[in-house]
Amino acid sequence: MWETMLFVILCRKNAHHRRSVAASLVQGVRILERDRQVKRQGSQALAPPWWEFFDFQLIRQLVDDVDSSIFGAIYEFKPPESHYHNSVDESPRYVIAFRGTITKPGSVSRDLELDVCIIRNGLHETSRFETAIQAVRNVVATVGKSNVWLAGHSLGAAMALLAGKTMAKTGIFLQAFLFNSPFISAPIERIKNKRVKHGLRIASSVITAGLALATKKSYQNSRSVDPFATLSAWVPHLFVNPGDHFCSEYIGYFEHRKKMDDIGIGAIGRLATQNSLGGLLMSATGRESEPLHLIPSANLIVNLTPCQDFREAHGIHQWWRPDLHIKSKLYNYK
Fold first, then answer.
1. pLDDT tens-digit map of 298-326
2. Which of 309, 329, 305 is nearest to 318 (CA)?
3. Which of 89, 128, 262, 316 yields a CA-CA distance of 20 to 30 A from 152?
4. Signal peptide position in this chain (predicted)?
């Protein structure tokens, strides 16, 4: 039972342990779905060790009503009574985890459909998200916000991010662990020349801020409460890899905002960081759109360990490796 004691003692103090536990529970959801697809049951199932090792129990599977695939799970931390003491109360009692896209016949069609919804800023309109957010609300209402973590990878990270943002708008700030969450933007971060990259970001910010000011919605927002201010107290843990073009733009997103402040045009940067060109164009055509990937604050954790290819850079497996070379920085919206 040494792993139970490790979780209880280290979970609040050791960032590596928290990251590893969250990533493992997300992987558990993925294996649950693969077990379903290939009909592995009972002692043949491969999923249980991913949560049982840390003394979690599977409370509920979250199932998509379109293709019956398992896309999420609710876990409860239940250590043996001999190890149950006051410090457990300060650890998460429940983790709600969401898997990423699985490119197998049993789920790939629905998963890719939802990936497109992310690009179109329409994930909030899907029945899968409705199932997810209802599950989050029910658990929080039952056990309290301090006892719940959210976790997800790729498509699942987008699901957890949207759930976290939705709850934060009501004043409920949940711990969230978002692995390789998609950032829908031109891959400026891939440009090696720092001067060119910085110049492109400034130009993009000026254009985005200008278009935002030109829209009625942004004009109204500029004279009312800053929409980002209401979310700024929510600080998810955002895990990205520079070699993963799906999420690497988060690095430039937060660093550029600070640079805009440093050169005296922070107001432009703050307005630009709340909007996207795609979202503004969609709003201009009459379709209200709030870009999912834009968030005010985050604890940004970047994996600087060299990767062999994109698959490794995007994979969930990297996040429980003990030899990671990571850089962590806290960004608070002001």
1. 999 999 999 999 999 999 999 999 889 99
2. 305
3. 89
4. none
SS (HEC) of 240-274: ECCCCCCCCHHHHHHHHHHHHHHCCCHHHHHHHHC
Rounded to whole angstroms, how far apart are CA atoms 233 and 51?
A: 30
Task: Tell me the mean pLDDT in the region 29-43.
Answer: 96
The residue whose two tokens read 């600070």 is: 258
Separation between Cα atoms, residue 48 and residue 279, nearest integer Å = 41
Q: How many residues does the chain have?
A: 334
329 contact partners, CB below 8 Å, separation of at least 6: 254, 299, 300
Closest to 318 in 3D by CA, of 301, 303, 299, 300:
303
* CB-count exposure of residue 293 (10 Å: 0-12, 13-18, 19+): buried
User: Sign (positive/negative) of CA torsion 252, 12, 157, 136?
Assistant: negative
Task: Give DSSP secondary structure letters for 120-161.
Answer: TT-GGGSHHHHHHHHHHHHHHHHH-GGGEEEEEETHHHHHHH
Half-sphere exposure at residue 167, Cβ-oriented, CA atoms within 13 angstroms: 31
- Enter the tokens of residue 156: 């699942």
Please check whether residue 145 is in contact with residue 172, taking contact to mean a CB–CB distance below 8 angstroms.
yes
Tell me the chain's radius of gyration from C-alpha atoms. 20
Whole-model pTM: value is 0.86
Phi, psi of 114 (to 5 degrees): -75, -35
